[in-house]
Every structure is written in C-alpha cells, then in structure tokens.
Design a protein that fits this description.
The protein is built from 1 helix and 5 strands, in the order E-E-E-E-E-H. By secondary structure, the chain is of the alpha+beta class. The chain has a 3-stranded antiparallel β-sheet, with no helix packed on it. Strand 3 and strand 4 form a beta hairpin. The longest helix is centred in the C-terminal third of the chain and has 14 residues. It is globular and about 45 Å long.
C-alpha cells in the first residue's frame, strides 16, 4: 500500500510514496521496482502529481494483506498478449472500450 505518482492517462506512473514510517520509496520501470540509485532517496519534484492514499488504522503501524482484492490495474509495459478464453477477451475489450488507460 503506497501513494503514487500520476501522469496523463497513467494513474500509477512510477514513483511511490510510503504510507508507513520507515517505508521505502521506489520507482517502477518496466514492471519492476527499483529502489533509489546510489542510496539516494527518491524525491517528489516540482510539476509532478501524486495520489496520496489514506487508510484507516488502529495506530499500531501494522499492515495485513487480505484475501479480497478491491482494485486492479493494467500493466502498460506489456505489449499485446493473446487471450484464449473468450470471457476474458470480452472483459478486456469492455475495459479498453469504457475505461481506456484508467
């Protein structure tokens, strides 16, 4: 769970914002997470936009994964992948038609 940078037509653009003390900011390139290079912190820069996601807490500083998934995202770094299951093809076509890159 992290906040994240936003770019035009790309809601999860690459930089993260940790939501817990001591959390590490990182960048995403080619679908892989990359920590700051040369031990330099990844910083927000002027002109960038961010979604800062807030979550309820008991104050203990613990995050637990749950079995339910509440949201999904397309991986923009992957080109065309053939889909063989007709229902999955139909779902992806509906997503592309109605939601584009968001």
């Amino acid at each position: 769970l992290n906040g994240h940078s936003i770019e035009p037509y790309k809601i999860h653009a690459g930089k993260t914002v940790p939501i817990i003390k001591g959390g590490e900011a990182f960048q995403i390139h080619g679908g892989k997470t990359v920590p700051g290079s040369n031990n330099q912190a990844i910083r927000m820069e002027e002109g960038e936009f961010y979604a800062i996601e807030t979550f309820g807490s008991t104050g203990k500083g613990l995050v637990h994964d749950d079995v339910d998934c509440s949201h999904y995202m397309k991986n923009f770094d992957i080109g065309h992948v053939p889909i063989r299951i007709n229902r999955a093809k139909g779902l992806l076509n509906t997503i592309n038609k109605n939601h584009g890159t968001l």
